[in-house]
């Protein structure tokens, strides 16, 4: 019975082992291939935190032990933080774990004084650190040691450094950038400034709990700073450099050259992404509020004929930029007194979240990281070869010393055995005494005295021998320590580069066009470069925000760049992006009054897969009550069906790449409204639809680029808020461009076909255009182009919005050439030819311009001479002319910088008509930059006298402009510990 029971349990045990063994074996394999990386502990919301990154082939469970020591010397260290018995589920692939050192946890240790220093300075104290990591999984175990060093120099944005700088160079009291305190001399060397302010600095830092020690080493001045017995950094005062100059260099490096502050040396190489994250955090502390305010006064004794603009007015402009939750926001506005005589006002205010600037800054950060990583990888390979050679040299020395020790004392240290020098000495002395006893009986008394001397000689020889052996052994231990250190550092460097690549570089190297991504998408790619928790901020998902007066584009057939007075916002929800826009659009109407439309749009878009984006736009508009009450539209439902009820437009848009050679964009839109119009009710769905497709790409293995565009809108498609209605219009456009002679010549050709169809008429035209341009520095650059253009009108369009049919073309020719001479001299020659013609209704108009300019510059001086001819042509060139039809002109201009503050300019204009001299003008200007206040003053004066015809009297105009621009910058206040 007992045997049967035992056999039963054996079978159960075998089954358990059979099923469990694969898991145990997988766990062992996973931990055998495990890679781990960690950087210094840091504060996250005042909690001591440490990131643990790991790479595993497959998932497994394990228990983590982590200890971090700071070494005061080679043999003296202190435990600063530790966490034991952390049960983790390690996932397969590249992952990370946040280790929180919460003191209420019994398995956590955190040295209180170390934590206080971290809170006080927001930085690890300088010194050498070792982090020990142990992970146990079943019967397998993983161990890793990280050697880390922090430089003793205070970081550019250290609170302590800022405090010392504020004592040595007190911050001036400013109001909008104007210093209201005494101006300090910033040219005094920092070392002298430090001597003069040493007592004041010590008192200031002592008030914040710091202890300072003023040192002079090799002629240089230093300040060592301590907090609670912890050395927290050193401030160096250069002998020949001022404090302000030193501060400016550090500021420029932090704001504009982040890579220069990274450290990639073998003995001090934390992960690049942790360094970039720290520098990004420090850079954000330097955020500024900056902007400018400009007030200008324009005055004149009159204005030219047929000009509607009042030349006597004031303008006030303002712009301010500041960050909100790390995102750049800009507020700008304009107020002009000219609005008193305008139907549509030009004054505006615009609040704008500058997402493009935010993406540009983040893209620069990612590009800098990619560049530094590539450089580090290349440098690491060379460093590894150098240090491996050094390690090989140390190992040869090690082998030689081991062999010498073995020959001399019989000790073999290859297995790590320790030599017992005391025992070896004692054995040698005993051997010497035995030798003396054996010879004592055969010697006389004199010989006995001689043997005593020999014994002492033997003892001295033994002591000397083993003293040398002991020194060799100590050298052997030192060499072994160096070998282990550099092997550990090389392995650590390789491991760090691996995680830099796996965690950051691999995610960012594939970014092709950051501007096509939302900030949130870009931030997810670069999340490990951003300060802890920033990616989780709600502001990260904002794709746009505008309020006030601004242009808005959603699609070709909905909101297509109209200027709105309203608000627009968008947000990235991850799976899609959504946006909402509400506002008014204004146009000058048929009778000169304002036509106002209220409109709103909702948009949602999403990437179906890489390189493919689809979206849906819902757009609605309706006219203002003023337009609805216009008697012009009374009983005209057939002509203006959109004015009785809102028009709804639904549009689907697509933007994607078919291959690396072809990009396609398309839109399909349909308009809908409720109307009593009999004709409108008989319109088909196709008549209410508009669509467009654009295909662009280049022919493989050539320089030929091709772009084609096709669009068509049905006669019943309505969108009166567009500047020109596309209803009933069909258009083809093809552009082909090629480069010749190694990009010396670029040539392109355009073909346009446009056709309009409505119930009243049908018409169209075909037009060809071309463009030729050279690109060279050695020879003159030449260019010539011909561009035809046209718009069309239907009867119903005329009733809806003010449009005019316009058909015409533009010829343009230009040539430029520059000669540079020694001493900074340069001559620049420019020739321009332009001819345009246009027909609008029964009125035609045209102009021809020939112009030649020669410009000479040298240092602060610029001189320019321009001559040419302007000829007007058309159906009626006399009724509203502001200059004679055929005029030859010449102008002389010049400017000279008297100093960095003062610049003057002036010029003369001459005009000659068919009947003789017809125009003379004289102008002058002054620009002055104040030294003590950030204000720029500009004054321009102009005298102009002219006659339009020899039968008319000369008219004299005096005009001028005074402009004051006030530029300001102020550092945003940050919380100081």
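^ structure tokens above, recovered residues below v
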């Amino acid at each position: 019975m007992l045997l049967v029971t035992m056999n039963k349990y054996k079978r159960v045990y075998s089954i358990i082992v059979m099923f469990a063994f694969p898991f145990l074996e997988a766990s062992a394999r996973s931990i055998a291939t495990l890679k781990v990386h960690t950087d210094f502990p840091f504060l996250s919301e005042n909690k001591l935190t440490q990131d643990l990154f790991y790479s595993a082939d497959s998932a497994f469970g394990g228990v983590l032990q982590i200890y971090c020591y700071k070494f005061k010397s080679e043999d003296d260290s202190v435990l600063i933080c530790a966490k034991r018995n952390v049960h983790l589920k390690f996932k397969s692939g590249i992952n990370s774990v946040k280790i929180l050192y919460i003191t209420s946890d019994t398995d956590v240790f955190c040295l209180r004084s170390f934590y206080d220093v971290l809170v006080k300075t927001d930085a690890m104290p300088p010194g050498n650190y070792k982090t020990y990591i142990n992970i146990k999984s079943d019967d397998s175990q993983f161990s890793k040691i990280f050697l880390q060093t922090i430089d003793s120099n205070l970081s550019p944005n250290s609170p302590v450094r800022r405090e010392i700088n504020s004592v040595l160079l007190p911050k001036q009291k400013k109001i909008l950038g104007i210093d209201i305190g005494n101006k300090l001399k910033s040219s005094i060397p920092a070392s002298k400034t430090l001597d003069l302010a040493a007592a004041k600095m010590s008192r200031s830092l002592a008030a914040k709990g710091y202890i300072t020690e003023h040192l002079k080493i090799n002629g240089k001045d230093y300040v060592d700073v301590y907090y609670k017995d912890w050395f927290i950094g050193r401030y160096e005062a250069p002998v020949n450099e001022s404090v302000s100059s030193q501060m400016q260099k550090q500021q420029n490096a932090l704001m504009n050259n982040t890579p220069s502050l990274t450290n990639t040396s073998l003995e001090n190489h934390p992960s690049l992404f942790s360094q970039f994250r720290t520098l990004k955090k420090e850079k954000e502390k330097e955020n500024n509020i900056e902007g400018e305010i400009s007030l200008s006064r324009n005055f004149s004794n009159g204005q030219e004929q047929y000009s509607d603009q009042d030349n006597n007015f004031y303008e006030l402009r303002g712009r301010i930029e500041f960050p909100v939750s790390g995102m750049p926001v800009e507020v700008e506005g304009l107020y002009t007194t000219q609005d008193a005589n305008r139907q549509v006002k030009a004054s505006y205010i615009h609040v704008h979240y500058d997402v493009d600037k935010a993406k540009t800054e983040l893209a620069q950060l990612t590009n800098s990281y990619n560049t530094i990583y590539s450089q580090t990888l290349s440098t690491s390979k060379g460093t590894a070869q150098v240090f491996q050679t050094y390690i090989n040299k140390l190992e040869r020395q090690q082998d030689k010393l081991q062999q010498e020790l073995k020959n001399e004392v019989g000790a073999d240290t290859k297995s790590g055995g320790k030599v017992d020098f005391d025992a070896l000495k004692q054995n040698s002395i005993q051997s010497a005494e035995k030798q003396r006893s054996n010879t004592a009986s055969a010697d006389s008394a004199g010989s006995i005295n001689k043997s005593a001397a020999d014994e002492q000689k033997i003892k001295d020889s033994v002591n000397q021998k083993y003293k040398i052996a002991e020194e060799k052994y100590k050298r052997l231990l030192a060499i072994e320590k160096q070998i282990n250190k550099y092997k550990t550092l090389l392995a650590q460097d390789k491991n760090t580069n691996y995680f830099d690549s796996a965690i950051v570089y691999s995610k960012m190297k594939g970014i092709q066009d950051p501007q096509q991504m939302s900030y949130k998408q870009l931030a997810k790619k670069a999340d490990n470069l951003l300060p802890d928790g920033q990616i989780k901020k709600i502001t990260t998902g904002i794709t746009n925000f505008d309020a006030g007066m601004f242009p808005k584009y959603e699609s070709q057939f909905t909101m297509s760049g109209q200027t709105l007075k309203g608000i627009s916002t968008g947000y990235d929800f991850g799976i899609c992006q959504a946006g909402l826009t509400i506002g008014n659009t204004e146009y000058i109407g048929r009778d000169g009054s304002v036509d106002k439309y209220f409109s709103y749009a909702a948009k949602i878009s999403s990437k179906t897969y890489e390189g493919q984006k689809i979206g849906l736009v819902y757009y609605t508009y309706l006219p203002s009550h003023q337009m609805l009450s216009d008697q012009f539209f009374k009983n005209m439902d057939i002509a203006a069906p959109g004015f009785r009820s809102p028009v709804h437009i639904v549009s689907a848009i697509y933007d994607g790449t078919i291959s690396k050679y072809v990009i396609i964009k398309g839109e399909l839109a349909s308009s809908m409204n409720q109307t009593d119009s009999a004709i409108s009710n008989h319109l088909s769905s196709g008549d209410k639809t508009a669509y467009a497709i654009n295909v662009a790409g280049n022919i493989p293995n050539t320089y030929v680029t091709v772009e084609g565009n096709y669009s068509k809108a049905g006669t019943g498609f309505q969108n009166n808020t567009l500047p020109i209605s596309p209803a009933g219009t069909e258009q083809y456009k093809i552009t082909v461009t090629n480069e010749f002679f190694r990009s010396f010549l670029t040539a392109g050709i355009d073909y346009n076909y446009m056709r309009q169809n409505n119930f009243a008429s049908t018409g169209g035209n075909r037009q060809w255009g071309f463009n030729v341009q050279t690109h060279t520095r050695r020879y003159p650059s030449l260019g010539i182009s011909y561009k035809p253009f046209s718009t069309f009108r239907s009867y119903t369009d005329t009733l809806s919005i003010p449009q005019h049919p316009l058909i015409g073309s533009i010829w343009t020719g230009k040539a430029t050439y520059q000669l540079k001479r020694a001493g900074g001299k340069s001559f620049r020659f420019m020739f321009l030819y332009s001819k345009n013609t246009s027909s609008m209704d029964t009125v035609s108009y045209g102009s021809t311009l020939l112009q030649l300019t020669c410009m000479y510059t040298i240092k602060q001086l610029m001189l320019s001479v321009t001559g040419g001819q302007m000829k007007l042509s058309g159906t009626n060139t006399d009724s509203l002319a502001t200059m004679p039809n055929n005029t030859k002109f010449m102008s002389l201009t010049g400017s000279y910088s008297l100093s960095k503050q003062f610049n003057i300019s002036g010029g003369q204009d001459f005009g000659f008509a068919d009947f003789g001299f017809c125009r003379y003008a004289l102008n002058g200007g002054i620009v002055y930059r104040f030294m003590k206040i950030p204000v720029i003053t500009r004054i321009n004066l102009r005298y102009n006298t002219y006659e339009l015809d020899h039968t008319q009297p000369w008219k004299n105009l005096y005009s001028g402009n005074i402009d004051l621009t006030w530029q300001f910058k102020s550092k945003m206040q940050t919380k100081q510990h």
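DSSP finds 14 helices and 40 strands in the chain.
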